[in-house]
Amino acid sequence: MSDAPSTIAPEFAGFFAALQERALAFPCCDTCARFHWYPMKACPHCRSSVISWRRIAGTGSLYSWTTVRHAFDPAWRDRLPYIVALVEFPDAPGVRLIANVAADPESLAIGMAVTPCFDDGVAIGKSGVTFVPAGNA
């Protein structure tokens, strides 16, 4: 989703810092070299606490999505319909990011390549990234 809370939890600081630089980064264990998402203080794979944020290319693929046609929050009423998707990244195996995809819902397909479009002037804790079908960025 493109609206993040105004105050973010410290474990997400690396993600939003990368967004400020128009990049994507995810936590990766320095011990077992595996990515994970949701950020945690210990690696969910080996339990090491030696974790760093690693940038990725950003190109991903659609794992799944849904088209939202009812605004559960009145602030989103003018954005209907919108797509909420799970995006996977070949250079961050195991990460599935929940994000918006700006596309015609009828044009989407499982495995479809998507690329990030970064919002200009991103401040930590504010909006950040939407995905579009590859070639439409």
Automatic annotation (TrEMBL):
Pfam family, one: OB_ChsH2_C
Domain ChsH2 rubredoxin-like zinc ribbon: 16-49
InterPro entries for this protein: ChsH2_C (IPR002878), ChsH2_Znr (IPR022002), NA-bd_OB-fold (IPR012340), Thioester_dehydratase-like (IPR052513)
Domain of life: Bacteria
Domain ChsH2 C-terminal OB-fold: residue ranges: 53-118
PANTHER family per record: BLR3430 PROTEIN
Name of the protein described by the UniProt record: DNA-binding protein
